[in-house]
Known about the structure:
Order of helices and strands: EEHEHEHEEH
Amino acid sequence: MRSFAPIPSSRRSKSPCVCMLPADHPLAAESVITPAHLDDAPFISLYADHFLHEAIERAFAEHSARLRMAVHVEFFGTACALVMEGVGVTIVDVVTSLHFQKVGLIAKPFLPRLDYRYAMFQPGVRPLSRIAREFVDAFREENTRLVRANSPYTGA
């Protein structure tokens, strides 16, 4: 039987999440969106066992709000595209929200604050090449810049 080396990950990162709404949505005028605002509204979420979906479920339960699932998706981009089609609202990371704000959606802070966590994985059997390391460093740097410049939360 072949054994595999553990796969170490690079430093983990996070991005705060925002609620995405159509520009003409009744909640578009609110400064902050809470579970109470979204009580029984059609909601588009990542798949049911995703850590962010579980965090959203907890936030709604803790605020006695009903989470009415319209559809589960695998990607934030799909969720935002469905918001654009009027299927419901969603919560996505602030970096993903930037593109969809350019094409007409509104991003609002969601409280309680939720963070999307991610990491880059690398082979455990050899160090990264110079170009791969440069890519990882550039990605982290740009992501940090985008989050700091666009987060609606202080200290993001």
